[in-house]
Structures
1.
Amino acid sequence: MTAHVDVIVIGAGFSGLYALHRLRELGFRTQVLEKADNVGGTWLFNRYPGARCDIESIEYSYSFSEEIQQEWVWTETMPAQPEIEAYLNFVADRLDLRRDIAFGAEVVSMVFDEDAAVWGVETAAGPSFVARYVVAASGILSVPLEPTIDGLDSFAGTSLFTSRWPEEDVDLTDRRVGVIGTGSTGVQLIPVVAREAGHLTVFQRSPAYTLPWHVRPFEPGELEDLKSNYGEIRELQRAHPVGAARLSAFSVLLDMLAMPPLKTASREEQLRAIDENGVMGALSWGDIFFDIEANQMAAELYGEAVARIVEDPATAAALKPTHPFGCKRPIIDQGYYETFNRDDVALVDLREDPIVAVTPAGIRTGQRHHELDVIIYATGFDAMTGALTRIDVRGRDAMSLADFWGTRGPYSYLGIAVSGFPNLFIIQAPGSPSAATNFVAAMEQHVEWIGDCLAHLRAHDHRTIEALPDAQREWMEHATALVARTVLVHPTCNSWYNGGNVPGKKRMYMGYTAGIPEYRRRCDEIAEAGYTGFKLG
Ligand code: NAP
């Protein structure tokens, strides 16, 4: 049986839930298709020990509803995964969203019917849908990057993946655990696992830059005070380039830009910086995002700061990063480097001693065999494009979105629409601010802009909207020019930001770095001018 609706929304994470609410309010018959059995998106699957957001809870939350922001009670400054999952469930119930969400409904194909100007959407379980519009709220970090290591399936112990961590408790007591991956996920997970496991071996390919951060419960009355001032907090957040005006992993980067240059700093000034601020002091210089030599000097200083924390000189040296700071997403941690001072934690530097294979009893590197009971993979995501390229999306002339992005590169217009794919809106596509900002703030702007756009199309009896190729090209040139002078495009930078973490993926920086307010201004200008750069049919 095929159901007919106005809009299909793919995904019931942060963006899908708000899209459903907004579009329903505007009077569109909207159906959400969610492959999981509950709401939450990436915050449902990534339930590994230590999972936590690195933006403050009062900013990493919906701003569109005064009732929700007043009613929900956050317990900590930066929320842990269980609290975010509970929050999204609360929102789904509070707004009565579940009645329009089909769970266990994984979208496998979407074909645009040019004559009828509708999308035909098929799910793995069978039910199909026809809709004038599709809003892909399928997430920027929702598709795990499966490691391709020889013998991976031969391991006789327990294999765990942070991106699909089991719901039931995992007992690591007295077990020999190996962790592969030292990005944001690994850096959060490693101190927690170290406290629980009998022995932990960290298999590190690229050492991380990570800044220590104090996360704490709210003091009695503190959250109430913040809530009484929510209007102002949201206003400041809205005006802030990264969509988070309070201290966050992103705002720290912006603060660094305002610091004096490292290249002209004396040795005394450099040492004072790490005396006073540790690893943060090593990186707090204004020139390191634009000058690769300054960046390399900062890496050296960073290594010195790490060596002051990590007692074993060989381990400290192995933890010193070699890629430019800033070219990967910033990471914050709770006790990462201190973890390596434990007797029951060992570091394997895969740059010196690469993994050869997973064996039934552990991991074999070039130099030895590491016996393990549990292997945890924290190996990242096929970000930004991965969710949609795993669906067979066919636009005009049966053009495949996966082929287009795979050969041309991850192009879009405004990070929201792709030429050749009419009536498809993508929440935070490549070319949108998402990667370098508070995702929730960036996403809210997208949902609102899309809602207004659909209302406009309905009011003016349009059946289709499609990005024009020239507008798309100009947008990507503009987005690319913004980062051209920065270390973000340095050739040694392999990050999910540019697809460099996925073997064979077309490499291109996928964010929009002029900040959310400037991005919003441009989007609004385009809408007010009658959706310039789009063809309305
Ligand atoms: P990631 O940053 O891409 O890190 C993946 C790690 O796995 C890297 O250290 C990578 O090494 C390593 N790796 C991948 N394949 C490997 C292999 N075959 N052998 C050895 N090592 C391998 O992924 P992530 O840590 O999951 O984080 C992704 C993003 O999710 C973050 O940047 C952030 O946006 C988000 N996130 C946020 C939070 C938070 O809010 N605090 C927490 C977790 C995640 P290379 O670097 O050498 O490729």
2.
Amino acid sequence: MKKIALVTGATSGIGKSTAITLACCGFNLIITGRRKERLDELKSQLEIKYKSEALALCFDIRNRNEVCKAIENIPQHWKNIDVLVNNAGLAVGLNHIQDGLFDDWERMIDTNISGLLYITRCIAPLMIERQQGHIINICSVAGKDVYENGNVYCATKYAVDALSRAMRIDMLKYGIKVTNVCPGAVETEFSIVRFKNDTDRAKATYAGMTPLTGDDVANVIKFVINLPPHVCINDITVTPTSQASALIINRN
Ligand code: NDP
Ligand code: 8X3
């Protein structure tokens, strides 16, 4: 029987690459996001091109009731989730704290922290029942170091880092692995969202460097998932070769 992975935020970037990469490794996929058309398109791609079974769940991860209802209503045979990739997340705005917008802050806190908690709260008991599973939290280099204007985004990723360590302890006795994955600069829709559709500014983020791609991060996730049962990577940081930390980048 094929293993099942649930990837949040699979409509774009790291999540989409992860869903495809895991389908190539023989997983069936539960994919989530808000953009239904993209979910439907990815579901067809996974089924037709990669011969994987796929279940698309369209919900806003910030809405606790939507998250719980979606997971409760999963058909029974999809509930044996082996891998949960907590990937959905975003940065919005890049301002000094005194200039920050409450709406931006709430979007980041509600998505990156509350959303991750809601989905984990629904899936962890299913893993505990089977005494197996692997939770992968997509954190960031922004969860290891703070930088100017990063304030609230960094705080949400520090929270993800703390939650990964806390979950690792809480899941220990059930044999469930928890891995915190911290990417540096990955060229996805991330900067377009951060800069509110200012595509020139988004592009400038990666000027003079070769950023990671979603596939690069997906390959790290694949590596971490495919280790023997007795081996757990607790924390892994992956950056472009030209990046040493969130803001230290060697640009041409
Ligand atoms: P993208 O913007 O390309 O993808 C973000 C994904 O998150 C989309 O699929 C989006 O789906 C989903 N998402 C966002 N908000 C919600 C919501 N409210 N409800 C449900 N799904 C949501 O960015 P990345 O792939 O780069 O980002 C993925 C993760 O990686 C994030 O947690 C980010 O913080 C982290 N990260 C990114 C880095 C980078 O440089 N790109 C570096 C380090 C970490 P939809 O809009 O359809 O809902
Ligand atoms: C995204 C990477 O450096 O823009 O998490 O914060 S960074």
